[in-house]
Write a structure and sequence with these properties.
The protein has 10 helices and 14 strands. Helices cover 32% and strands 26% of the residues. The chain is α+β, with helices and mostly antiparallel strands.
Length: 322
């Protein structure tokens, strides 16, 4: 499904070199979406993605039509158990979106990693500060982004990464978040055991439901979490959400990320050091470090024009607890 369908898409030249790969969309949540409750859960997630595609059209596009695709032998051998392709219209003719659902997070991670290995010659890696966990590159024929969220892999293509594939990826992640939230309790609210966490700290202990509701100016749903990410969504205000992601790597990772990002500003009085970013897509981020603890807070709020100051205040409170 995913590799072969990508080859047959309008972005053939971008993905031909990765078509045979066996490894690829708040910060990303590391929960197991599709497999945790078996085939019925997978089917439900696929149906929700397909039925809800039109509600999550990327910025710059006017239509989105999603269908479930038939897997081939290569798909199944990589551990893929289902796939969804989204045809985008009214925007960049190279825009495309794919979801691959895998049996395990390990198989999805392998698939993602192999996609990165198989990029065409002349590709230039790009850091997508809107979604830091996405793996993006400008290729000779366009932009390519991939991201693993638990055992779901998202692949987005467009004419370029900046304001192209990036917007497709953001919309895809929102669609996946909304789909899993719509399914109610289940994998989207599973807490990974501490042994599986990428951080020893619990993000939802640092970012409480009360604080999230205060930041969004209204009620929030129960948290969705993994070992390093805590996410709260507003049940009424569409995409409004607040996410805390904890990173490994300490000061060296913090400095490295700051050096790669553009259009950032220093943020004083938050931990030992901090910087902020205001996205054209309507959200703000505050990256901060205290000691060896490095974290990022993302706030998407349609209600508050002062969202950056709200995010800074919340980041300051969280940093005091690190």
């Amino acid at each position: 499904m995913l590799p072969h369908k990508l080859v047959r898409s309008r972005c053939t030249a971008i993905v031909a070199a990765i078509a045979t790969a066996a490894g690829f969309a708040c910060a990303a949540l590391g929960c197991t979406y599709a497999h945790a409750q078996g085939a019925s859960r997978t089917d439900a997630l696929v149906r929700t993605l397909v039925d809800g595609a039109s509600r999550h059209i990327p910025k710059g596009y006017s239509t989105a039509n999603a269908t479930r695709v038939t897997l081939n032998d290569d798909d199944r051998s990589s551990g893929m158990i289902a796939g969804v392709v989204v045809a985008l219209g009214g925007g960049d003719p190279k825009g495309s979106l794919r979801y691959g659902l895998f049996q395990s997070e390990q198989q999805a991670e392998t698939f993602t990693r192999n996609l990165g290995y198989r990029r065409p010659a002349g590709s230039s890696p790009r850091f997508l500060q809107y979604v830091p966990s996405a793996d993006c590159a400008d290729t000779p024929s366009g932009g390519l982004c991939s991201m693993r969220i638990g055992d779901v892999v998202i692949v987005a293509t467009a004419g370029a990464v900046d304001r192209g594939a990036s917007f497709v990826m953001i919309a895809a992640k929102d669609a996946l978040d909304a789909a899993t939230m719509g399914l109610g309790t289940g994998p989207s609210t599973v807490t990974l055991p501490k042994s599986a966490a990428t951080s020893s700290r619990d993000g939802c202990a640092l970012l409480t439901k009360t604080d999230a509701a205060a930041a969004l100016g209204g009620p929030v749903a129960d948290p969705r979490r993994s070992g390093d990410t805590c996410y709260y969504g507003a049940p009424v205000a569409g995409r409004d959400s607040v996410t805390l992601q904890l990173f490994e790597g300490g000061r060296s990772k913090f400095d490295f990320d700051r050096g790669r990002m553009q259009r950032i500003a220093s943020a004083s009085g938050i931990g030992d050091d901090a910087f902020s970013f205001v996205s054209d897509a309507g959200f703000v981020q505050v990256y901060f470090i205290k000691g060896t603890s490095y974290a990022a807070l993302t706030l998407q709020s349609s209600r508050d024009v002062n969202r950056l100051e709200v995010a800074k205040a919340l980041a300051r409170k969280i940093a005091a607890s690190l």
